[in-house]
Each structure stands twice: as C-alpha cells, then as structure tokens.
Amino acid sequence: MSERQRATHRTAAELGAAIATGETTSAEVTRAYLDRIGAVDGAVHAFLHVAGDAAVAQAEEVDRRIAAGEKLGPLAGVPVAVKDILTTKGMPTTAASKILSGWLPPYDATVVLRLRDAGLVVLGKTNMDEFAMGSSTEYSAYGPTRNPWDLGRIPGGSGGGSAAAVAAREAPLAIGTDTGGSIRQPGAVTGTVGAKPTYGGVSRYGLIAFSSSLDQAGPVTRTVLDAALLHEVIGGHDPCDSTSIDAPVPAVAEAARRGASGDLTGVKVGVVREFAAAEGAEPGVVAAFDAAVATLTKLGAEVVEVSCPHFEYALPAYYLIAPSECSSNLARFDGVRYGLRSGDDGTRALEEVMSLTREAGFGPEVKRRIMLGTYALSAGYYDAYYGQAQKVRTLVTRDFTAAFEQVDVLAAPTTPFVAFPFGSRTADPTAMYLADLYTIPSNLYGGPAISVPCGLSEGLPVGLQIMAPTMADDRMYRVAAALESTQEPRLADQTPEVTA
Amino acid sequence: MAAISREEVAHLARLARLAVTEDELDTFAGQLDQILHSVARVGEVAADDIPPTSHAVPLTNVMRPDEPRPGLSREAALAGAPAAEDHRFRVPRILSEEG
What we know:
By secondary structure, chain A is an alpha/beta fold. Chain A has 18 helices and eleven strands.
C-alpha cells in the first residue's frame, strides 16, 4: 500500500496524531484525499464542489501554523467535507438547489469557522437532497449520490453526500445536518457513524434554514471517537445563534474513549416498545438490532423495555411542523438578494418574476413541502394541523422525559430499511417519509442521538440508534463506542472497494 | 373524500409564489391529498389540555452585548444579487399594469 493509500485508510484521530508529530503533513494527507476523490467520485458523486488547490493551500497554511508551534486541537490538519447547506466564504454553496446555483456566500457558517480555526482543511461541499428535504439524495438538483456499498442504491438523505464521502474514504470526516434524521439515516445505510448533537449544542449560524426549530449540524465519520472529536470542534455557544445553548460542550471524546473499553456496567438501556411493534421494519434490520442489543447486554448494560406511546405520532407531527417552518424560511428565495432570477424580461412585475423564479429554481419535493406548510398554517386549518402537531410535540417530549427517569439511553434501529434501489420510493412521498420513522422523535424533543453501524442485512449496513437526554450527548458516545469495540474489523472499514 | 382539491392547490401555489404548471397541479393535488390524509393522524391524539411546543430549548428574549462590530460591506452584500444598480438591489417594477 502506498503512503497516499495508507492516509485514506487511517482514522481522523490517527491522522491528527501523525500530523502533530511530523510523521506526515496536512498537505500530504489533503493531496491523498483529493487523489481519492479524483479516482472514485465520478462513480459516487458525493461532492458538488471540490476545493482542490484551495484545500492544499489551506493545508499548507496549517502545516506552517503547526511548524510555528501553534497549539491546535487533535484534528489539526485533517481534511473534512462539508454539507452544501453550510455557508463557506467564497466557496459555492447551493443547498443542492438550482435557486442558489453559482452563489458565493460572503461569510462562513460558525461551524465552518470553527473547523478552520481548529486547523481542519475543507475538502469541498457534499451533495444532499435539495434544502435537506429527502431521505435518498434523489432530490438533489445536481443528480443523486450513489451508495459505495452498492452503486445502484441510495446513500440515504438528506446528507447522502457526506455519508458516502466518508464511506468511500473520500474524506476522513464530514459535517452533516439533521432535521428529521438527515445525519443518522445516511450513516445507517452507508455503514458510517452519524451523530445529531443536542439541539442548540452546535450553532446554526450560516446553516441555510429548513426547519429552524429542528435543524442541527453534527459529525459524520468512520469511528465513534472521530465523531466525538469533531463534535468538540464544532460545538459550543455562539452569540450569533440565539437558540445556541450557553453551556460547555459535554465531554464526548472522553466518553468515547471510556466506551471503547467495552464495559457498560451500570448503564441502563431502554428499548422502545412501540418501535418494536411498528410494522414496516425489514426482518434483517430487526435481526441486526436484536443482535446489537444482545451485545450491549453482554457488555454489562441492563436492557429494559420502555413505553413511549406518542412516538407513533411523531412522524405525522414532523411532516406538519417541518413543512410549516420551511414554507416560511424559504420565502427568502425570491430572486432579489441572491441566486437565480427567472422571467425578468422587463415587462413583468416583481411578484410575477418571484413566482417564475421560485417555480424554475425549486424541485418537486421542495414545492410539495412549501405548499403543505402553507396549507397547515392557513386560517381554518392551523389549529387542526400545525397547532395539533405542536401539542403532539409536547407529548413526545414528555415520553422522553418519562423514559429517561427509568433508563440512561434509548436504543432503536436507526431506520426501518437498508439502502433501497434508486427510484423505488420517489413516486410515493409518504413511502419516502417512512425512512425517518425512528429518527424524528429526537428532533422533536431536541435531545442528541447517534447512529453506529451494528451489522449487515442482505450484505448492506444496518445502524443502531442510541438516543440520550438533552445535553447528555456523552452517554450516547459511550454506548456507541462500546458496541464498536466488539467489531473486528469495524463495520465502517468493511465498505467494498468502489469500482468506477 | 379528498382532503384537498385541485383548485385549493392552485390557490396554495399562488400564496406560496410558485408559478406551477397545469401538469404539476395534477400531480401535486393527488400527492398533497395523500400526504394530508397521512399526517391527519395527529388528530387522533387527545391533546385539548396540552400546551404546544414551538421549540426544544425554551429561551426568550436572548440578547447579546450591544457592541459595534463590522458587518458586510455593500459590495459583499450585493455580490450575489441577480441585479444591482447604484449600490442597491435592482428589482422589477412593484406594481402590475392593471394595479
């Protein structure tokens, strides 16, 4: 194996250590990943923009900072791919929509600033469902991303590009965003680790808003420790986000290291009874989940069944709340301040140009959700739809609160099915929405949740989801790391070689 | 019974400033009807006395120190605009002919 091939097989923690000790340089590692992207991204299409020379220049700058003795964090010099919904100064940011084609943001999102400050190198921007609305990346205006495990299947969504980039070793680390499962479900179906931190734990400044009360950025990686290290880089209070929590980041890296010992003595894990009873989960997913729970028991955890009676209403509540917020948030795309303008031939008035711009710039799923939200918020329907959904949100939160009085964390499959073939769910929007069945409750509640690879079904990865109480992100990392420690080799390192 | 008619979808599209095509109206009417039937399940929950939750983190009136700091320059703010003139965003006329 050549030096460059070796770089793309190491974990981010190992790369950071190798760069810090001078065994390799950030520029060398960055070039290795750019080579890898050049070799396989034609087949995978995880990236919408590759930073190329700009990434190498940033890496060389980090190498100079390290050589000058600057104290940078454990991931200094390690490349990272960023979902194309976070603004990057002077680097294209489209949210995978035609309406933002060619836009160069005038500022960095706080998450991106923190990556740069910690010495991480931005490799490029990853593909996604348009404005993060979807579970397969098939709604990207720039073509879908393909799953490295099977190029005929979806990589999950909305953050399929970030997950596929990490799975195909095109990036050691990636940033995703999770509104209803968009970090965790792609993680599950690509055999990678994806964590949604506590809502408010990571700044939303510069995250193009889909559903502001639910959106949360988080790490996508091949190991639990890498996710925790990246979480610590991007987390923490930000005065630019009024919903950011003013408290220290939970000690997630320490928890991941503790979990890696494989001892879960004293940890109480709850299995949600209503999820087990829900129809639609594939037998292979259920089998892999049951095996993972048995492993947790073997590691010393006490596993009990808990009841969360309102979880079955989380999905319909989400598909009222998220579209309602999206119909308001996406009003800003009006062809005036940025992005596309269509139909401005000198004869048409502003409102008509706005309508033509939005018609030309938005894809079908975005239009559906804007209209659904407009409906749910309109007079006469507000109480029955949006208002009722907000009350269900309260009840889902109470279910979590009651459950966490009995157990430390909750466990569930991440998603009901393995990666599905392209085109198999696009004709029926409600069939696509089922992908988020198990992930949505944590978004409504706001607590953290992680997906960690737990097995294979029909040769495709299955994820175990661990949900924790608000600001107890450390607990989920400990349990996920313990499960990961039983895998030799790690499932995330078993991705088949991509053949272009 | 349909939860939403084709005419209602056309009205929603106007409210949302989406100049949808006739073909799209046919597709969206059926799909939105199906989605609404599915999400209407929230109505099965007895929640009359339950307060609504708008946000996972209950915060009100969050302030940051009122300290001057540099904002975007005019050039940077206008750089992404489809049309700009005299340091301002340029827009089509606001009033329609019949207005």
